[in-house]
Amino acid sequence: MMAFIAQNIAPIMFVGLVCFLLLGFPVAFSLAACGLVFGTIGIELGLLPPTLVQAFPLRIIGIMKNDTLLAIPFFTFMGLILERSGMAEDLLDTIGQLFGPLRGGLAFAVIFVGAMLAATTGVVAASVISMGLISLPIMLRYGYNRTIATGTITASGTLAQAIPPSLVLIVLADQLGRSVGDMYAGALIPGLILVALYLGFVVLVAFIKPKWVPALPAEARIYREPNGASGHRSLLVLFLVCGIAGYVWSKVHQSVINPLVGRQLPAPGDEIFIMSMTVASVLALVLALVNKFFRIGLLSRLTEQVTFVLIPPLVLIFLVLGTIFLGIATPTEGGAMGALGALIMAGGRGRLSKSLLVQALDNTAKLSCFVLFILVGSTVFSFTFNAADGHIWVEHLFDNMPGGAMGFLIVVNIMVFILGMFIDFFEIAFIVVPILAPVAAKILPELLPAGTPPEMALIWFGVIIAMNLQTSFLTPPFGFALFYLRSVAAKQDYKDNVTGEHIPAVETSQIYKGSIAFICLQLVMVAAVIAFPTLVTGGIEQAVQIDADKALQSMTESSNAARDGSAGAASAVPGGPAASGAEGGEKEDPMKGLLESMKADEGKKP
Amino acid sequence: MTAGDQPGRGAEETVMQGLLRVSRAIDSLNERVGRSVIWLVLMAVLISAGNAIIRKLFDTSSNAWLEVQWYLFSAIFLLASGYTLMRNEHVRIDVLLHRLPKRGQIWVDIFGFIFFMMPFVLLMIYLSWPVFTRAFFSGEMSENAGGLIRWPVYILAPIGFTLLALQSVSELIKRFAFLKGLIDDPTRRKVEKTAEEELAEAIRAEAERELAREEVEIGTAGRSLK
Fold first, then answer.
1. Looking at this predicted complex, what is its ipTM?
2. Looking at the complex, does the CB of residue A555 fall below 8 Å from at least one CB of chain B?
3. Cβ distance of A606 and B117 shorter than 8 Å
4. Distances, alpha carbon B114 to alpha carbons A107, A251, A380, B135, B182, in Å
5. Best mutation site among B199, B211, B215 for testing chain A: the one with the most A CBs within 10 Å?
6. Could you read off the pLDDT of A443-486 as tens digits, one per residue?
7. What is the pTM of this model?
8. How far apart are CA A172 and CA A211, in angstroms?
């Protein structure tokens, strides 16, 4: 019996973990308890060294010092303040007016705004609730198909998970030992393609079933010109002018910026993209302001409205993502700047009250606490698990996998998809991902196109997982986006207060059905990212060198960023097997890691 | 405890009431700690953003300002742990749990607090205390130039885990009291409204104001026509 346990401690521990978690006690403490129970058994059986527990305080200090995770409260707080700032409402109203005259226009607006909110607030609940309260009644009023309407809303809300700056990407970057900046850069293009897929789907519907997605009737358009024109032409002209300006900037960006920041290397694509967008939107704002103050009257009301409404989110996107991609700020600082920006914006609109502030702070503190405690618990667990050679057991599990690395990816994705139906993405990121990461680091590089640095593999892996986890918000029985929409969609028949028509209640089954098409689109996207790794790596290949610079800079600035430094060092030598090997080694051999961290601690003492 | 006989039950009642007083005291302690700790989030935001801006504008930065951020971060998540537990916000996997009857759920919690939580938090207090005392007596400083002294952040771990341990005791008392029918369901969230509910309410209120404004405009327009 004892011998059986001794030989199979890793699988037994894994089964134990599942039982402990299913019991329903808070995950953080179940994880820790599982680690401790099996740690004790292991020590009693002489499988594990009795000094094992001595390492826990050091691990906890490591978590406290982790400044990647510091971004979690910042982005959470930013989202909570922004969702109440009225930005989402303005965007939905205005963009709805912009696209309204088109067939499928309201759905476009929802997707477009969903993407904008995703790039700023990053809170699924907020997007879904705002859209459910503002866009859904309008869609129902003008006869949208209910499945399409609800599906578009829930799916667009979950974009917050896939598009930077999402919390999932931060947590995954931390767990995979990669920089958040790289993770963001890698996720940007797949995220945008997903938005394009959604839009494409609505276009398709508009062509095949025009009645499902009708255009807004003329009387529902509010920003009309005195002469009855819609004002789209002037917007188109402004858009073209600014587009050209942005394009020109993208061509000269490198020759302007490189001398300014003293850089020799070519500018990375995402930096050029973000900067060109910034140039274009600043130009639009200046033109609109000039037009307004000098009463030139060249721009239509619609144009002005669209410009003014788009500026705050664009500024925030620049403040957060722009500064991170440009390497001006770390993701943590980007989060703090975004949070400050959100406070200023909410204050400027007169929406910032003491009770809102307290509520946002309260929720942020509680969320940070439970997330960090899951990490503490999972650290205790995985430390014991790895000391018991659990990682080797997991590796062997995938040894006999048909299809090798590709088989691994497919199995992992199916597993994550199913787990996502039942458990939260934080738990998946903290429990499942660290168990899989060493295997992924070992076997995935072979799937990357030749010449790609092998440490890109984990970023690619992370983006795949993040894309996949997005579906967890849409899949029953625990799809949170579905819950949020249900909580705000009409539960009873009502009389529309504009047309006075009788509108039947939104049924729960309609909400569930609506999400199916979009879940399929997301899975297509997961498959696409698996099939074409360059979708992810293409966005970061050039950024790597910049990160190395940044890492060097931060190393001279503060040596306590030893962790980031080593990640940076690994990426400084593209294809350097020694560097990535060293990092993998640290993960694989916990006792060595323990000794090292103890030594490091000894060294710290004067 | 002798639950069977009459005087015993009276004694048990008194003990339970005494324990509930302890539980209330712990709750109010963690409530107060939690209510104060949340402001550290705002402080961290301002310091981090300020530090980034100053570094870019004036090209100066100090390690003290960088380090104070993770000090605050540690304080937030460690000190709020009891508060978060009291609010029942530590996430659970409740796939099976919510199928159990109420009393079953309470027993799961009782089991969890005694066998999962207690050993873990007590061990953590036991292990993290020496880390603090060592740093305190040696006066350990950050190895970075201009860095901060270390013990104030190291002491957060034993304090945080102690708050968590206390809150677990309080939760345990409340679970038993509930089983005895002395108090209402302690697992029901005590928060008045969630952030999501407030957001929905704010948007609805705004829409109603808008509608009222339009109606007034239409009304006055109608009158002027007459």
1. 0.89
2. no
3. no
4. 52, 65, 18, 32, 21
5. B199
6. 888 888 877 788 889 999 999 999 999 888 898 777 888 988 98
7. 0.82
8. 42
